[in-house]
Amino acid sequence: MSKPSLGRAFVLWCGVFLGLILIGARALILAAPMINARPIEALEMLARGLWQDLGLTLLLTLAALSVLRSLPRWRRPNLVISLYSLLALTLMCWGLGNIVALRMLGSPITADWLAFSDLEKAGTITDAFRRILGLPEISLALLSLAVLIGGAKAMARRPTKRPFAAAILGLYGGITIIGLALSDGPPPTSRARLVNPVIAFLMSLSGDSGLSGLESLSEGPSPAQLPFGPATPLLRPAIPQTPLRNVILFAMESVPARQTQGWEGEFPVTPNIAARLDWALAFDRAYAHVPASNYYLVSAFGSVIPELSTDLMTASHPDLDLFTLAEVLDAAGLRTGYFESSDNRFQDAELFLKSEGFGTVRDYRDWECPLGVYDVESVTDRFLTTSNDLCTVNEVVRWIAQEPDQPFFLAMRTGMTHYPYFPGAEPQTYVVDKTHNDYLNALRVGDQAFGALMEYLDRSGLSAQTLVVVLGDHGEAFGEHGTYVHAAAVHEENIHVPLALINPQLFSGQRSDLLVGMMDVAPTITDLLGVTAPPSWQGRSVFAEDRQDGVFFYAPWNGFQVGYREGDRKYIYNGNTGEAQLYDLRADPDEQHNLAPDNPAIAAAARDKLGDAIAAQNAFTDRLLSAGAVAPLAPSRADEIILEVSGTRYQSAPRAWITLDGEHVAVIKVTDAPSNAEREARQDEIDRALMTFRLPVTAPPCPHQIGVYFLNDEWAGDGKTGDTDLLVRSVQFAGRSYYFNSFTLLTEGAGKNAGEYFRMSRSGELRVELALDKACLSAGLAQP
Fold first, then answer.
1. pLDDT mean over 324-350
2. Of 203, 215, 229, 281, which one has the fewest beta carbons inside 10 Å?
3. What is the CATH number of the domain that holds 669?
4. Do 190 and 328 fall within a single domain?
5. CA dist 166 to 57, 159, 451, 527, Å?
6. How far apart are CA 674 and CA 687, in angstroms?
7. What is the CATH number of the domain that holds 355?
8. Are 251 and 195 in the same domain?
9. Is the domain of 536 the same as that of 651?
10. DSSP-assigned states of every residue in 45-95
11. Domain count, the chain
12. How many CB atoms lie within 10 A of CB 559?
């Protein structure tokens, strides 16, 4: 074969292999939305994502072949082949790098991103790429290089295969034409996942990124920004004389502002925190976005509002790679550690923490605690065994003292204030209710742990150079609006939390009424340390000029409740029931007077704003999840209701009528219930009588409620043991389990929580509000 012919064959095969590599890269990028689509929709989506990739491949390859054919035979083609190879390698590397860019930034690299990264000062993006490009990414790039160049050279020497290569390029042309024809329709996924990264970058040079649906997360307003008005930023403190070197984030489990001395707490259980507020900037309007323990990890460390879902996004999307505060500070030279009084295996927190930048991750299993380890074996509280918080802080102090001269970032979370509440040694009496009193004593121990940590910083001379952030990870309810513990609602007791930034150089007892969300914690920390925050973070520093005067929150487990606070106005919407609540928190801080029924116009405007907020939040999380090409777990089947029930019988066994969205499902009878006609039934007899009912159902598209009607209360009278009661342990539907803290009693006085059961002692109705997905939530909110 002549050299010109050999050169043309190399270009031909190089085009084939370049197209295959780009197809593979695009398939990885579109994996998550394609998995959830029908086969024909997945193929159409792939074609829309490939037409620019393959179009550029064909344009480059055909141009090189044309030049090679037009060259006089006496001229050497090496220059053309070398230039073509360089451009092909550029396309290949840019296509592979786009996988990382989407995971990290949510969009391809554009001129705006490069400007934001401040390359001449070794800014955020280049640092992040160096950390993200690990062995798998480098191995993939080297393998692709070998396939592109080595494969093309090998196949170029086989002239009989050239028609096969031409046929493949023809197929690329067909895909390009199909994808181009489909490109006028609405995008099946984020435009950022469909556009070729080279085209996106070139378009951005002219001021048009070609990503009309993608806003910049780094600067300026955007269509996907939460729809709140601007806030007046706080004055940033002066640069301290002694530079900040360390950060401690002290998170108190299940602690609302309402229970905390120094905020609204009326009991003297957090005196150490209250005393340190003299060297702090304290926030009076700080909020958790979700009233659940490990959702706080995503918000505080990942600076995002978690996905609108009943599943923690790190569990439902196990391959999700957030760019966390720990990773940012590790790159800045701080050693990192996380210490938990409870069990880090809860909701796979341990895996999340280790994969997201924490070099040391420890919990109660990693140390001896002579002060007490409190075992929790309840079916509703697996993995919540907790050590005394004072033991946890001792481990924190040991970790700091191991390398006292090395800057550090550590986070600690207490555990004793998580239900069922562990009061510690020598509990004091604050209130009559034992459960609440146990909680207050547990909070007192957590405050003692905080005090011990601050005393160590003082003794070791670290106070001036350490920023301490103390906060509640979410709130806790004690019946204020008919709910208990957390995760059941988004009233103030559930989500309004204490938050303070403590450092004697920076602050001297200031208070702020700025509206702050948990997602703002990480960028505030990086701001005070002078470290550049990743542009993909959703939160903003409390000192940033582009802050909004609003905060978004939700709780999807007791009816899908979602809402926002903007200024003094708070709006709550229940996607299951359609109920709306509107409060003026300045006039009504305890949320006792729902203004929505008497102010329909204001309520309608608030509802519209919530719809815009949900759309913006969904757009943000969709991009975040699709950027990592992560696949959600398969949804569970919704074809049966499973009930675990027991009871007691007097004259007849307890019976209950079960409904789904008001439609009849079945009547169940607890035939194994022990008799208490002659004597009171023992707890072990009730436990042994536990029965499981599996009731087949045909569920509507968005089921909302399961009703449990206790039908046959029977009572022997005062002083007698005979009583027919129904005891519900759990209700399961569509792969989810609902326990007492998710039950709503509709018949006043008909029942109450009794350990691991909800006891129905009078005939009446118990309702379970079912989890809604965000599509059902948006559909319900869109209805008038």
1. 88
2. 229
3. 2.60.60.40
4. no
5. 13, 12, 74, 56
6. 10
7. 3.40.720.10
8. no
9. no
10. HHHHHHHHHHHHHHHHHHHHHHHHHHS-TTS--HHHHHHHHHHHHHHHHHH
11. 3
12. 26
| Amino acid (1-letter code) at residue 352 | F
Q: Is 8 within the bounds of a domain?
A: yes
Q: What pLDDT does 131 receive?
A: 40
Q: Please report how many Cα atoms fall inside a 13 Å half-sphere around the Cα of residue 718, on the Cβ side.
A: 0
Tokens 């070139």 locate to 202
Instruction: Tell me if residue 759 falls in helix, strand or coil.
Output: strand
Nearest to 251 by CA among 279, 288, 277, 290: 288
Q: Is the peptide bond before 420 cis (omega within 30 degrees of 0)?
A: yes
Confidence category of residue 522, pLDDT binned at 50, 70, 90 = very high
Distance of CA 253 to the CA centre of its chain: 18
- CA dist 367 and 345 (Å) reads 16
**Which DSSP state fits 478?**
E
Give CA separation, 359 vs 129, 180, 337, 352, in Å: 19, 47, 6, 12
Of the candidates 541, 570, 603, which is a domain's last residue? Answer: 541
Co-location of 391 and 268 in the same domain:
yes
Which class for 12: exposed (0-12), middle (13-18), buried (19 or more C-beta within 10 A)? Answer: buried
705-720 pLDDT, tens digit per residue, is 899 999 999 988 888 8
Q: Are 363 and 342 in contact (CB under 8 A)?
A: yes
Distance CA 349, CA 342 (A): 11
End of a domain among 518, 541, 564? 541
Least confident of 87-101, 124-138, 170-184, 400-414: 124-138
Task: Report CA-CA distances (Å) from 521 to 473, 527, 538, 613, 759.
Answer: 11, 10, 11, 21, 42
**Type and span of the H or E element at 200:** helix 197-205
pLDDT value at 204 more than 60: no
Is residue 586 in some structural domain? Answer: no
Could you tell me whether strands 484-485 and 477-478 are parallel, antiparallel, or unpaired per DSSP bridges? antiparallel
DSSP per-residue letters across 585-617: TTT-TT-----TTT-HHHHHHHHHHHHHHHHHH
- The verdict on 353 and 450 lying in the same domain is yes
Residue 501 has pLDDT above 90, yes or no: yes
User: In terms of pLDDT, which residue wins out, 777 or 575?
Assistant: 575
Shared-domain flag, residues 182 and 281: no
- Output the CA torsion sign for 642, 766, 313, 439: negative
Rounded Cα–Cα distance for residues 729 and 727 (Å): 6
Per-residue pLDDT for 492 more than 70?
yes
Phi/psi for 13 (5° steps) reads -75, -30
Which residue do the tokens 């075992």 mark? 375
Task: Say whether both 171 and 307 belong to one domain.
Answer: no
Pairing mode, strands 408-413 and 484-485: unpaired
For residue range 292-301, list pLDDT tens digits in order: 888 899 999 9
Place of tokens 């208070």: 511
- Between 539 and 699, residue with greater pLDDT: 539
Residue 565 lies in a domain: no
Q: Which residue has the higher pLDDT, 271 or 535?
A: 271
Q: How many CB atoms lie within 10 A of CB 345?
A: 14
pLDDT band with cut points at 50, 70 and 90 for residue 627: low
Q: Rounded CA gap, 416 and 509, in Å?
A: 28
Do 276 and 380 reside in the same domain of the chain? yes
Tokens of 732: 């399961």
Q: Give me the phi and psi of 329, to 5 degrees please.
A: -75, -30
- Among 132-141, 370-379, 616-625, the range scoring the smallest mean pLDDT is 132-141
Residue 84 structural domain: 3-205
281 belongs to a structural domain: yes
Give pLDDT tens digits for 590-625. 999 999 999 999 998 999 888 888 888 888 887 777
- Whether residue 690 contacts residue 731, with contact meaning beta carbons closer than 8 Å, is answered with no
